[in-house]
Amino acid sequence: MLPKFLYHAPETIHEALELLNKYGREAKLLAGGTDLVVDLRERKTRPKAVIDIKRIKELNVLKYEPGRGLVIGATVTYHQILEYEPVRKKYPVLWEAVKTVADEILRMRATLVGNICTASPAADTAPALLVYDAVVETASKNGGRKIPIENFFTGVKKTVLEEGEMVVSVTLPEPPADAKGTYLKAMRVWSEDLALVGVAALVADGGKDVRLAYASVAPTPVRARKAEKVFREDGDIREKIEKAVELAVASVSPISDVRASKEYRLHLVKTFTRNALNRLLGVEAVVVA
Amino acid sequence: MKNFREDLKYVGKPVPRVDSYEKILGVAEYTGDIELPGMLHTKLVLSPYAHAKIKAIHTEKARKASGVVAVAVGDDFPFRVGLYVNDRNVLARKKVRWAGEPVVAVVAETLEQAYEAAELIEVEYEPLQPVLDVRDALKPGAPLVHEELGEYAHSPAFHPIPGTNIASRFTLKKGDVELGFKQSDVILENEFMMPQVSHVPLETHTSIGQYMPDGKIKIWTSAQSPFTVRHILSVSLGVPEHKISVYVPYIGGGFGGKAGINFEPLVVMLSKMAGGRPVKLELTREEQFITAPVRQGLYAKLKTGVKRSGEIMAEKILYVYDAGAYADYGVNVGRAAGYSCTGPYYVPNVETESLTVYTNHPWGTAFRGFGHFEFLWAIERQMDLVARELGMDPVEFRLKNALLPGKTTPTGEVLREDAGRIDECIRAVASRIDWGKKPVAAAGKPRGKGIAALWKAPAMPPNASSAAFIKFNEDGTAELLLGITEIGQGAETALAQIAAEELGLPVEKIKVVPFRHTDVSPYSWQTVASRGLFMDGRAVQMAARDAKNQIFDIASQVLRVSKEDLVLSDERVHVRGRPEVGLELRQLVNGYVYPNGNVVGGPVIGRGFYSAARLTYLDPETGQGYPALKWTFGAHAVEVEVDPDTGMVKVLKLVSAFDIGKAINPAIVLGQAYGGALQSMSLGLLEGYFYDEKGRMLNPNLTDYKIARASDIPEEHEVIIIENPQLDGPFGARGIGELSMLSVETAIANALYDAIGIDLKNLPITAEYIWKHIQAKKEKIPVEAVT
Predict the structure, then answer these.
(1) Which residues contact B121 (CB under 8 A, 6 or more apart)?
(2) Which CATH class is domain B294-460+616-778?
């Protein structure tokens, strides 16, 4: 049973912004609803108005143009992303991450933009967006902004979005020509789960451009810039990987909760970072067990 | 003895389920579908405290809210309910005993209005110290969950200890355990634990009650056992049973959680307050976790004495079941575990104490397996630990101590000659998993093999019974009326096959009436205990034979031969040896009409029953006696692969064998085996109630209470059906319902030792828990103290 609210379904961004202005913080945007409806059920939020943006056609853009990159509109579902061939080819980290979100049924409803606007530390798509240097495009009555994803999250379920501002799309620039990448996710089950730890890794520029980002190990999804820098320098690749692993661990601050302990999460950061880098940098894995 | 009966036409065939189409098409009726004129809706106000005094409840604002018809508090219902121990309040009175206990019920015209009014209720509490661990609950001076335990009425089979938290103490003494230990070369002691878990049925608990102005009571409910609901309500309210009607349509999964009596008394009493309008309560998923009953947790301590040669000489057992806040049904779990305590092994000297203990956790009830999943975890781990201590192969050690026909069970029962064979089950799974052949690690992921066995008998009162009716229609089709409910187990189909076989009538000509209504359905004690196929199967056999006898009565007059010379097959009665001399079934089942209009006989209605044979109450001191209608034996063997980085376990192959006597429907048996194994794995590897320090559940949702899904299924699962017939079972059948979900997780834990040398003693064996053990082993720190 949901609490009562006024339901609006604008058909243009302009109308949506009018409504956002009218209700201010007392309005919630509805795209897939897979976070909002749960929060409503649990009375974690009690908005005066819910603004359903699914009827705004221009928000459903999903388009890749060589050289210009990939644009993902606010109402684009995970299912659409998985089905869109250029994502799999050009943005494998994102494709792999999206593939791990919930299950087929939820992916037909849930949206990527909704995922980052909820700003859960466990957002699976956030590490992928971080390694692709995505830019969040917003709109408001005062004009829009282009916010680098790394500046978008400010805390647990907090973003830089201001009152009256909405995300219109996320743009992922053209990735480096030789980019390879992966998303490794630890779950409690083989089927579907929130990330206990999510690790996005991208390697380009012949192994000099390495990017690492994490979910579920800090108040926000984080990029491990210090660890990345290791690969700009020369030296033994195995040593560099070990150094990067240590720096990655130093750049996260997981908590213990009902899903996993801090110790387990730190271990997973270590081992997943090492496994991802070994694989992407072509280093044979050493059996640790 | 495989060739028990090979002349069978319907029994033993993979007949499609009789309820398939309705369910697939979405037209099958469930309680939630039922809408009655003038029906009202309920929202519960739940306790946020695990243990607290109720100082005041302010309901004035809620009573004035729009649409509110009634607001009830515990003192409105000054009586208790319960199956075996009468310990349960309809709504909390004086104090709350778990976080999630219903304290106030708000009844309104719409569910929205009930929700809005419920938010206006204010309850003042004075927190009390909660009891959150069974071992603490047993300490002298522990806070009491039930101060009034001594006043509660209870069945003579149970032994509450007033002034303590012990809801029931079961003791068993067989042989001389001290002498047994003296005769032993090796003695090994271990402790094991597991938390409470939820049944997680697809359909949450849903009940509608109506207290009619003339004093009659009507109930529509998702209950496994309509007759038990009626009986207990009758006792609690002092209303005779013929004034209570309980209607049960299909049930969306029960797993024991909808057995006994649950929210039915509440909706009935709310209806009385609401002037006799029907009142509905449908739990939300969150309420299903914290307000509906759960499976009890277990703390077990085993001391096993063995000879070097491998014979178990003595076993001293302590089982402590975490009953939570109420134990009205839970006490029987402790009793069942007590009399089956050794697992499927012959032990000459046994001393067992099985306690059902109150805590301030959610209240426990029946759960598929009824205590056996829990204690078999301890027993089957211990079997491996003892075998290792002896340097003996776990399969050989189990076979050496196998409880074979002629040996005595813990209660002193001599295992009957036609009982199932545990040794055949163990040998079958060992052979199919290539036991003894060490698996090779692939891609740095160690592999291992493990085995575990199981047994169970129905846990029920010695006089439990079942009945069945078969009534014929004018066209020769028939209706089968049952008392056992269809909770997904496939009873309707298997019982229809038994009727079809006895009557020579195709299954599709028999309609199994898809609801139970205590006014018209035949009695069946409860839909629990893997008893339906055996007991209701025998009742259906008797009903079919009764109908057949009536048909032959009529036919013998018309055909002018004695009944003994008649044959019924393919919907036709004919004279033995002369198939051309006969009558169509439809000419007989409503009375045979002569051309001149004379009639012989009338509508045929067959009636049958079965009561458990030769069972006794158990001796209150020694636990000796006859509790078991039948024992079903089984075993599982697995091969697993462990990811040492994460602790994730993959079951590469699972082999299960059960000696079920006769597979009435092999397709349904496979369904039970596949589903049961996954449930066992889910409970063992993933599930558990986790609490904060105040006793509030931390994971009351499907985000953090993980259950297995399709991707968690073993990569390969081979099921071996062994058919040593039980001569008094219907066509030799025993029962499979619960057996399939026992011991799979233990076989996995045993395989984990084989794979990576870790010894797990607590459930759930989550990936993180395994990882911790791998780390502990690497760092050579002591492996595990029970936490």
Answers:
(1) B45, B57, B58, B59, B61, B62, B71, B104, B106
(2) alpha beta
Residues above pLDDT 90, as percent of chain A? 96
The sign of the CA dihedral B60, B62, B67, B68 is: negative
Size of interface A-B (CB pairs under 8 A): 64
Distance from CA of A204 to the nearest CA of B (A): 26
Class assignment of domain B34-128+205-282?
alpha beta
Q: Say what the alpha-carbon torsion angle B241, B243, B249, B251 is, to the nearest 10 degrees.
A: -50
For B328-378, write each residue's pLDDT tens digit.
Answer: 999 999 999 999 999 999 999 999 999 999 999 999 999 999 999 999 999
Tens digits of residue pLDDT in B585-642: 999 999 999 999 999 999 999 999 999 999 999 999 999 999 999 999 999 999 999 9
Q: Which residues of B touch A285 (CB under 8 A)?
A: 444
CB atoms inside a 10 Å sphere around CB A22: 14
Q: Which domain holds residue A25?
A: 6-52
Tell me if B20-27+464-611 shares its fold with B34-128+205-282.
no
Give the number of domains in chain A. 3
CB contact under 8 A, A188 and B766: yes
And the tokens for A156?
């647990």
Whether residue A287 and residue B444 make contact (CB cut-off 8 A), yes or no, is yes
- At the second CATH level, the architecture of B20-27+464-611 is 2-Layer Sandwich (3.30)
pLDDT band at B6 (very low <50, low <70, confident <90, very high): low
Together in a domain, A97 and A196 = no
* Residues A95 and A137 placed together within one structural domain of the fold: yes
The answer to whether residue A258 neighbours chain B at the CB level (below 8 Å) is yes
| Nearest chain B residue to A264, by CA | B768
Q: Based on the domain organization, do A61 and A160 belong to the same domain?
A: yes
A285 part of a folded domain? no
Give the pLDDT band (50/70/90) at residue B781.
confident
Confidence band for B7, pLDDT divided at 50, 70 and 90:
confident
Please give the DSSP secondary-structure letter assigned to residue B625: S
Catalytic, B501? Answer: no
